[in-house]
Design a protein that fits this description.
Blueprint lengths: L3 H15 L14 H14 L4 E8 L4 H5 L3 E7 L3 E3 L4 E5 L4 E12 L12 H5 L2 E13 L4 H4 L1 H6 L4 E10 L8 E6 L2 E7 L8 H13 L9 E3 L7 E2 L5 E6 L3 E9 L5
Parallel strand pairs: 1-10, 3-7, 4-13
Antiparallel strand pairs: 1-2, 5-6, 5-10, 5-11, 6-7, 8-9, 8-12, 12-13
Helix pairs in contact: 1-2
């Protein structure tokens, strides 16, 4: 691995410590996923917190063909996973990229077998101990991050700045329900809570397999945020955002500047 991977990791660790934005990507954006994940691994090792979960994000065209993948994985650190409150804070980098995402969080009921490399939907489902309605703060210190593509986002802690945990729900009760997202009272997203035939389960399978491939098999209690249900909604500090999960629950939030060291 060439020298710049370490420099890139150091730069994103430093900006996370200070909570500040940067003007440009700190080096050459990795062209391929193995290099991006190797850089992410260096950053994880240098960040003083445990991994409390992982976020899964979709890879869209034109990146999907170029990278030969349709999802990526990023770490969610334990200190940034919080229970929803009356009004929850969505922490983002001031001057960076910032988005609000309504998602389904799947909590591991037991450790994944670290020797196992592939999972069926049914076997993966048997590992789920709890299902939570969640909001992801998808933010990086680089305002141009979304235009640089998923390999860049992977190196920047997977573009995750925090996770807000709403109420627990029965996974089987989700099909048929809808989720709505509003920003400052305006509806910006509307979608089924159970998006396709297997809902959030393919993203969960991906997380199981990718985390093991990265040498960090999933552990009991970790939360897997399975991807944006209504899209990636760009937000700014001070905006009020609400994720309405059908008749289950609302998560009401305000976008705030992230505090240092989280």
């Amino acid at each position: 691995m060439h020298h710049s991977a370490s420099d890139i990791a150091d730069a994103f660790v430093a900006t996370r410590h200070t909570g500040t934005a940067i003007a440009a990507y700190p080096g050459a954006v990795p062209e391929f996923l193995p290099e991006a994940y190797a850089t992410q691994a260096l950053a994880i090792e240098r960040w003083p917190d445990d991994i409390g979960g992982w976020k899964v994000a979709r890879i869209n065209d034109p990146w999907r063909d170029r990278l030969q993948a349709d999802r990526y994985l990023g770490p969610v650190f334990a200190r940034t996973i919080v229970e929803a409150s009356l009004v929850s804070k969505v922490p983002v980098y001031e001057g960076g990229s910032a988005a609000f995402e309504a998602e389904i969080g799947l909590v591991l009921g037991r450790d994944a077998d670290p020797e196992r490399r592939s999972w069926s939907i049914d076997d993966a489902r048997a590992l789920i101990g709890n299902t939570r309605l969640v909001v992801e703060a998808a933010s990086s210190p680089l305002v141009s991050m979304t235009s640089l593509g998923p390999a860049a986002a992977i190196t920047a802690f997977g573009n995750n700045s925090g996770l807000i945990l709403g109420r627990s729900v029965d996974l089987e009760a989700l099909p048929g329900a809808l989720v709505d997202v509003t920003v400052d009272g305006n509806q910006v997203g509307h979608a089924p809570l159970w998006g396709d035939a297997d809902g959030p389960l393919p993203a969960f399978v991906f997380a199981l397999e990718q985390a093991t491939a990265l040498g960090r098999p999933l552990k009991r209690g970790q939360v897997i945020s399975t991807g944006a249900l209504t899209g990636v909604h760009k937000v700014e500090i001070g905006q009020e955002c609400t994720a309405r999960f059908g008749d289950f629950a609302n998560i009401i939030c305000v976008v705030t500047a992230r505090s240092k060291h989280t």
